[in-house]
Specification:
The chain is mostly helical. Helix content is 61%, strand content 0%. The protein has helices at 2-23, 25-34, 46-55, 60-74, 80-84, 88-93, 98-112, 126-133, 141-150, 163-172, 181-188, 195-205. Helix 1 (2-23) crosses helix 2 (25-34). The N and C termini lie far apart (45 Å).
C-alpha cells in the first residue's frame, strides 16, 4: 500500500510539473534547476496542528528542541488530554512563550469540547477548512494554508501571506515592490490546478544559487 501511494504521488507530481513547465517559462527554468518535486506530507491530525502552532515564528532547530521537550511531557503523539494535564508553568518550562501556551491550551480545549473535528477536514472545501481551523487562537490563514498543503494534500493552494512565496515572486518575476495578493494571484493563475507544487518550487528556489540573466 505504501509503495502504491508513493507511485501515485510520483505520477501526480510528474503531471503537475509538465503543466507548470508548459504554463510558465520562468517556473520552467526554476524546475529545471531544482529537479524532481519532493513535497512531503503529514497526516491531518490534532498532533499536526499543535506542532504547526508550536513552530510558528521559530527557526527549525529551536522549534525542534522545544517540541521534543514538550512531547516528552505531554506525550507523543500530542493529544488534548496530554496538553491539558500540564500546568502553564510546565509548558513555559520547556521553552513555550506565554502566547504559545495559551494557543495550545485553546486548541486542546476546543478539541476536547468537540468544536474541532479533524476527521471531517479531508471532506471539507478549502474555505470551510480555513474557517474551521481559524476558530483556534493563534491559527491564522497562513497556518490554515500550510495545513491544507502539507497535511490535507490540496494541490492548488496559493498562500499569498507567505513571506517565502512573496520573496521568490519578487525575485524571479522582477517586481520592484513586495507583491500584493492580487499581483500574486495574477502571476499564479496559469499554475492552476497545481499552485501548491509551484509554491514548493518557489520556496526551494530561495535555497539555491541562481544566475542572474
Amino acid at each position: 500500500m505504501a509503495r502504491d501511494n508513493a507511485q501515485d504521488k510520483a505520477v501526480s507530481h510528474r503531471k503537475a510539473i509538465l503543466h507548470l513547465k508548459k504554463s510558465d517559462p520562468i517556473l520552467a527554468d526554476i524546475i529545471a534547476r531544482i529537479g524532481p518535486c519532493r513535497l512531503e506530507f503529514g497526516e491531518p491530525t490534532f498532533h499536526a496542528l499543535a506542532e504547526s502552532i508550536l513552530y510558528q515564528q521559530l527557526n527549525g532547530k529551536a522549534a525542534a528542541t522545544i517540541f521534543d521537550r514538550f512531547t516528552a511531557l505531554a506525550g507523543d503523539p500530542l493529544t488534548p488530554l496530554g496538553i491539558l494535564k500540564l500546568t502553564d508553568a510546565q509548558m513555559r518550562g520547556v521553552g513555550l512563550s506565554r502566547q504559545k501556551t495559551a494557543y495550545l491550551r485553546d486548541l486542546a480545549e476546543k478539541t476536547k469540547a468537540g468544536l474541532m473535528e479533524f476527521e471531517r477536514l479531508p471532506e471539507l472545501p478549502e474555505d470551510e477548512v480555513i474557517a474551521h481551523l481559524t476558530q483556534v487562537k493563534g491559527v491564522g490563514v497562513w497556518t490554515a494554508h500550510m495545513f491544507l498543503m502539507f497535511t490535507l494534500r490540496r494541490p492548488d493552494i496559493l498562500p499569498t501571506g507567505d513571506y517565502g512565496v512573496q520573496a521568490a515572486i519578487k525575485k524571479h518575476y522582477k517586481k520592484r515592490k513586495w507583491p500584493k495578493p492580487a499581483v500574486m494571484e495574477k502571476i499564479a493563475k496559469p499554475w492552476a490546478p497545481y499552485r501548491s507544487i509551484a509554491c514548493w518550487y518557489l520556496w526551494r528556489s530561495l535555497d539555491i544559487k541562481t544566475v542572474e540573466k
